[in-house]
């Protein structure tokens, strides 16, 4: 969709709301007409500390008076060390070396380049439904929706896609059986398409984001880790959307008792300022040829200041625990709607990363239903997004600062939107 900003200027962006935003505060956004909205998108999982958290705003203000840009290969900035130390405290000891950049896609590109340098092997295995970005390398690993890839192929060679166990989409299918099938297919791929001697890494979102907010079983993630160990293949966890408390843990890999070789982070790291990074063991990072990768802007001083303060806020305000508790509260409220409306086939999630999936009467993906419900919520002041290969899932991504009263208000609006939208479902 082409968004017209004025009579003379236009930009090509997809636009999901008509909200001309003025400012934000915690879980709320205010437009230029004075309307107040509950924002349960967090800028797609970015503002985990809420909009314009005063401590983070102050940290940015203070830094802006000192230095706006200090190119990392020219100047040493101890803030890089300070941020690294802050991250080391919340990560396993084997993840102890950092490379920072600006965006999630850049971080994925960094991981691709690292594993190829470190292993001398060209190929990467990704999993169906994953989203890893939209630059060409990252897009080559993205299979969440065809719209992301349409018109850009052929993409980067050396990428192979393995099945992901979409348990909730396979209604009635045995979880253990599906796990075994997918792991068998993964090993078959290593024996039929990309041999271990040519496979540098596997990359996976521990919880699918754009692919539908689907979490695989612990057994599946453990099985992937074991196959990587068996065949001397590196394991990359893309935690761009799941990181920094979103799933009720600092990082989603903690739900599975598995540690990746490379961790990709972005979004919630700096509460809205552009910053991303990859984390690995120093022995692995040391195999990266110095000067073979870099960038002008990352890590930017303002973003680092925001990230350092973000971690302090997450810790001192107990936001990780709040994510876990409020996520359970939200799931409980949504389950009541699932019991009332047959169009809601599933409610699922970890922490404050929650999906509500819709189907039509014939069991097909409820794309139009989900979109109608989303629009109706917007008209009543609640901003939500959809996801999934058919956009059949409404996702709930509130800031980790969210309170029960905020969730209660959002659920009230959602209930009203369901009633209004599903009452008109024959018109869809």
Kindly report how far apart the N and C termini lie.
21 Å
| Tally of distinct domains | 2
Q: Give the tally of β-strands.
A: 17
Describe the strand arrangement of the main beta sheet, using strand numbers.
Answer: 6-12-11-10-9-7-8
Any idea what the CATH superfamily of the largest domain is called? Type I PLP-dependent aspartate aminotransferase-like (Major domain)
- Known CATH architecture of the largest domain: 3-Layer(aba) Sandwich
Structure described in brief:
It catalyses: 4-aminobutanoate + 2-oxoglutarate = succinate semialdehyde + L-glutamate; (S)-3-amino-2-methylpropanoate + 2-oxoglutarate = 2-methyl-3-oxopropanoate + L-glutamate. The protein is an alpha/beta fold and about 425 residues long.
Written overview of the protein:
The radius of gyration is 21 Å and the shape is globular. The chain has helices at 42-45, 54-64, 78-88, 104-119, 136-140, 146-149, 175-192, 218-231, 282-285, 301-316, 319-340, 367-379, 404-422; strands spanning 2-4, 10-12, 21-25, 28-31, 36-39, 97-101, 123-127, 159-162, 199-204, 234-238, 262-265, 276-280, 344-350, 353-358, 382-383, 385-387, 393-396. It folds into two domains: 2-52 and 318-427, Aspartate Aminotransferase, domain 1 (Alpha-Beta Complex); 56-316, Type I PLP-dependent aspartate aminotransferase-like (Major domain) (Aspartate Aminotransferase, domain 2). The protein has 428 residues and is α/β, with parallel strands linked by helices. The model has no long low-confidence stretch (mean pLDDT 93). The protein has a seven-stranded mixed beta sheet, with helices on both faces. It catalyses: 4-aminobutanoate + 2-oxoglutarate = succinate semialdehyde + L-glutamate; (S)-3-amino-2-methylpropanoate + 2-oxoglutarate = 2-methyl-3-oxopropanoate + L-glutamate. Pathway: Amino-acid degradation; 4-aminobutanoate degradation.
């Amino acid at each position: 969709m082409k968004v017209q900003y004025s009579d003379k200027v236009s930009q090509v962006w997809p636009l999901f709301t008509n909200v001309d935003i003025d400012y934000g505060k915690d879980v709320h956004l205010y437009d230029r007409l004075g309307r107040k909205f509950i924002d349960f998108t967090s800028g797609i999982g970015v503002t985990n500390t809420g909009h314009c958290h005063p401590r983070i705003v102050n940290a940015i203000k203070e830094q802006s008076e000192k230095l706006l840009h200090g190119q990392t290969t020219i100047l040493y900035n101890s803030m890089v060390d300070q941020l690294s130390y802050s991250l080391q405290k919340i990560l396993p000891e084997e993840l102890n070396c950092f490379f920072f950049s600006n965006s999630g896609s850049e971080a994925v590109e960094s991981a691709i380049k690292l594993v190829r340098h470190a292993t001398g092997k060209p190929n990467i295995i990704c999993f169906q439904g994953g989203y890893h970005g939209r630059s060409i390398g990252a897009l080559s690993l993205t299979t969440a929706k065809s719209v992301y890839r349409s018109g850009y192929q052929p993409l980067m060679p050396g990428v192979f896609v393995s099945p992901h166990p979409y348990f909730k989409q396979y209604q009635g299918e045995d979880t253990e059986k599906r796990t075994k099938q997918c792991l068998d297919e993964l090993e078959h791929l290593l024996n039929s398409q990309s041999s271990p001697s040519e496979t540098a890494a596997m990359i996976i979102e521990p919880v699918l984001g754009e692919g539908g907010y689907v979490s695989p079983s612990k057994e599946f993630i453990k099985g992937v880790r074991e196959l990587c160990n068996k065949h001397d293949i590196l394991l990359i966890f893309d935690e761009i959307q799941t990181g920094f408390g979103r799933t009720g843990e600092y990082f989603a890999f903690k739900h599975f008792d598995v540690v990746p070789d490379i961790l990709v982070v972005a979004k919630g790291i700096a509460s809205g300022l552009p910053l991303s990074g990859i984390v690995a063991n120093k022995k692995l990072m040391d195999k990266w040829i110095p000067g073979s990768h870099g960038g002008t802007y990352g890590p930017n001083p303002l973003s680092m200041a925001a990230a350092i303060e973000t971690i302090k806020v997450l810790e001192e305000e107990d936001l990780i625990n709040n994510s876990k508790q409020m996520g359970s509260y939200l799931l409980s409220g949504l389950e009541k709607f699932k019991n009332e409306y047959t169009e809601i086939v599933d409610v699922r999630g970890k922490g404050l990363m929650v999906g509500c999936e819709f189907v039509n009467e014939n069991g097909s993906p409820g794309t139009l239903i989900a979109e109608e419900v989303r629009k109706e919520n917007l008209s009543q002041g609640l901003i939500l997004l959809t996801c999934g290969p058919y956009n059949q899932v409404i996702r709930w991504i509130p800031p980790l600062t969210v309170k029960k009263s905020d969730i209660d208000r959002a659920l009230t609006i959602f209930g009203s939107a369901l009633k209004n939208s599903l009452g008109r479902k024959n018109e869809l």
